[in-house]
């Protein structure tokens, strides 16, 4: 039974319109809202003493009063409703030039990370709302053609004097600056710190005390300096869950597309410790984390040494047999050329004030872009962010549009 059923919250009798008559939004009456907040508080009282709570949440602007949702649950909703989140649907994971409906795309990976991280967080009595928000937003900054696309765009950014490109920083940029979602620092910090696999052995959170300190952390990441861990245990969990979600799934996808044969086994040392299938690997890694992490007094997330060694060996196997497989990387130079063509074309359109260019009509002049961000960004920055937000399919269409001659159907208009 819904704990608020006696208040008829869904019947409409106890809700009242907001004072702003132009808005169709409604709020529950004070008694209902108080009951909901009390229930949420009771749930949070059951969390680990080191878990993040609603009282810890810090926003940069606080433009809107909080509602019946916890701050982190509200952040998850804000992320899902962004334009950047919508574009997950056509961003590939590893196999970016393979037409196969049964391999992982970013949208599936993000759901897997969320599910795995919440399972771990629930068992450790951490804040699932915060975990979900971080997981949903962590890969928003990924760009066309996976990690190789990131390499291509980073080189162009350096050529144009705006530093390197990193997808974790871009995720924060989309949510905090470009679409200006006013998310909590805890969520943005978890998104910023989600990558960096070399650290995925044992991680303890490190507090971040102000927005100035957080912005400095972003600046360090812009230079490739990722020495600081997440500020919350929840952020640490998502960092681990990211690896758990892809390490076995990539093997499964590699078999699906024929890079690995169906009967080709991972190294024996990995198979003995982790298992041989995606399901077994996920199961092993989750239980190992639960058995070796401490979230009540010391506060850290950790694998055992045996699992750590096996995971390192499995990553090396996947690097050789999947990520650097010659059959997967044969088209890379063409992709590099596509990036250069689009970057230079849109930069010329922007500098030349060609208002009919798609960088204006489908990015800069759209209502989802923050005016403050737009006014503060240089032309190369705007081009970087426009390209970074593209899906693989949109990127390919734009390349065809700017390189292939257009035909006239029938007669000139």
Short description:
The protein has 413 residues and is mostly helical.
Which descriptors apply to this entry?
disordered N terminus; single chain; 19 helices; 413 residues; 55% helix; mainly alpha; 3 domains
Walkthrough of the structure:
The protein has 413 residues and is mostly helical. It has three domains: 65 residues, no CATH class; 258 residues, Hypothetical protein af1432 (Orthogonal Bundle); 72 residues, no CATH class. Helices cover 55% and strands 2% of the residues. It has 19 helices and four strands. The strands form two sheets. Strands 1-2 form a two-stranded antiparallel ribbon. It has a two-stranded antiparallel sheet with strand order 3-4. Strand 1 and strand 2 form a beta hairpin. Helix 6 packs across helix 15 and helix 10 packs across helix 13. The chain is globular, with a radius of gyration of 23 Å. The N terminus is likely disordered.
């Amino acid at each position: 039974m819904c704990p608020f059923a006696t208040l008829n919250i869904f019947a409409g009798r106890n809700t009242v319109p907001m004072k702003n008559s132009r808005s169709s939004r409604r709020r529950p009456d004070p008694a209902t809202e108080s009951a909901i907040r009390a229930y949420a508080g009771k749930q949070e009282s059951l969390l680990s003493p080191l878990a993040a709570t609603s009282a810890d949440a810090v926003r940069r602007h606080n433009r809107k009063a909080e509602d019946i949702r916890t701050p982190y649950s509200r952040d998850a909703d804000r992320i899902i409703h962004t334009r950047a989140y919508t574009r997950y649907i056509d961003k590939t994971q590893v196999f970016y030039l393979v037409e196969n409906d049964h391999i992982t795309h970013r949208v599936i990976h993000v759901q897997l990370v969320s599910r795995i991280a919440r399972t771990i967080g629930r068992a450790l009595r951490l804040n699932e709302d915060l975990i979900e928000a971080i997981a949903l937003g962590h890969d928003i900054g990924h760009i066309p053609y996976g990690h190789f696309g990131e390499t291509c765009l980073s080189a162009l950014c350096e050529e144009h004097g705006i530093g390197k490109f990193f997808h974790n920083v871009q995720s924060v940029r989309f949510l905090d600056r470009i679409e200006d979602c006013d998310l909590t620092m805890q969520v943005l910090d978890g998104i910023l710190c989600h990558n960096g696999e070399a650290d995925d052995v044992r991680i303890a959170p490190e507090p971040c005390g102000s927005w100035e300190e957080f912005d400095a952390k972003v600046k360090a990441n812009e230079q490739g300096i990722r020495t600081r861990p997440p500020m919350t245990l929840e952020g640490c969990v998502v960092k681990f869950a990211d690896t758990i979600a892809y390490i076995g799934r990539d093997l499964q996808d590699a078999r699906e597309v024929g890079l690995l044969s169906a009967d080709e086994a991972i190294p024996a040392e990995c198979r003995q410790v982790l298992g041989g299938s995606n399901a077994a690997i996920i199961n092993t890694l989750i239980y190992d984390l639960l058995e070796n992490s401490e979230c009540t007094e010391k506060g850290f997330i950790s694998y055992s040494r045996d699992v750590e060694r096996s995971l390192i060996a499995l990553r090396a196997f996947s690097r050789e047999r999947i990520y650097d497989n010659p059959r997967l990387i044969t088209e890379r130079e063409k992709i590099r050329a596509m990036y250069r063509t689009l970057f230079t074309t849109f930069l010329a359109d922007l500098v030349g004030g060609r208002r009919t260019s798609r960088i204006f009509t489908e990015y800069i002049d759209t209502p989802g872009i923050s005016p403050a961000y737009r006014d503060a960004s240089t032309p190369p920055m705007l081009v970087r962010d426009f390209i970074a937000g593209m899906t693989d399919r949109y990127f390919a269409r734009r390349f065809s549009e700017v390189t292939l001659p257009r035909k006239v159907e029938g007669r000139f208009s």
